[in-house]
Amino acid sequence: MPGKCPFAKVKGVFKKRVVCSVINEEVNHLEYGCLTPNYSSCPIYLLKTKPTRSEVVVPEEEELVESHHADNSEKEIERMVNEHVKKSTEKFKNPLKGEVPRSCYDCVFFSPTTKRCVFLKAIVENPENPPCKEKLRKGSS
Predict the structure, then answer these.
(1) Cβ neighbour number for residue 22 with a 10 Å cutoff
(2) Would you kindly state where each structural domain of the chain is located, as residue ranges?
(3) What is the pLDDT of residues 67-123, one digit of tens each?
(4) 3-state SS, residue 2
(5) Where is the composition biased (Basic and acidic residues) (predicted)?
(6) Which of 32, 38, 3 has its CA nearest to residue 18?
(7) Euclidean distance between CA atoms 32 and 29, whole angstroms
(8) Which long-range CB contacts under 8 A does 101-104 form with residues at least 24 apart?
(9) Backbone angles phi and psi of 93, in degrees to 5
């Protein structure tokens, strides 16, 4: 089969099972792309085909610069994730801060799975009409 990983051994007739000869274990061929031309991006393939330290001579200066860039990119990724999390949580209202949610789905204290409000410690019958809305409005008047 063209474009197949050289380390992939296909087992089974009806259900494709792929055994990776590098790690001698069955792998998910859809996840690792063993049977596609994209097999070269597989972490197991990269690990096996990556040149060893003795094969590649890299000056120490370049190594330091490379690791510095890696540190910067990791910090940049962390900063971006933190910004995303902050933006994602800003959409939720917090009744403890006096914020009134339009529905329970907009509230930090609501669990849609159990339909319970942790703030009021009660089951919510209609999440579109939060029971805390009246309490919060009465308390602010």
Answers:
(1) 17
(2) 8-49, 95-140
(3) 555 556 778 888 888 887 777 777 777 777 777 788 888 888 888 889 999 888 999
(4) coil
(5) 65-77
(6) 32
(7) 5
(8) 101/130, 101/132, 101/133, 103/127, 103/128, 103/129, 103/130, 104/128, 104/130
(9) -95, 150
